[in-house]
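Quick start: what a row looks like.
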Amino acid sequence: MPKMKTHSGAKKRFRITASGKLRGRHSYSTHILEKKSPKRKRHHRRPAEIAPHDRKQVLTLLGAKRS
């Protein structure tokens, strides 16, 4: 069988940290920002950890070994 390719879109959006966590952008952080509080917008600048439910799928797209 041929090797599976890494998903180009996923490799631009997600990072695996040295400790094995998955990081990505916060949701609700791009548009309709007028009604959101400055504190909320500020916190959304930082990367978010990917939910355990989505972890398996993201790792598959990145071509990483299961962890």
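That is the whole record. The chain has a mean pLDDT of 94. The longest helix spans residues 52-62.
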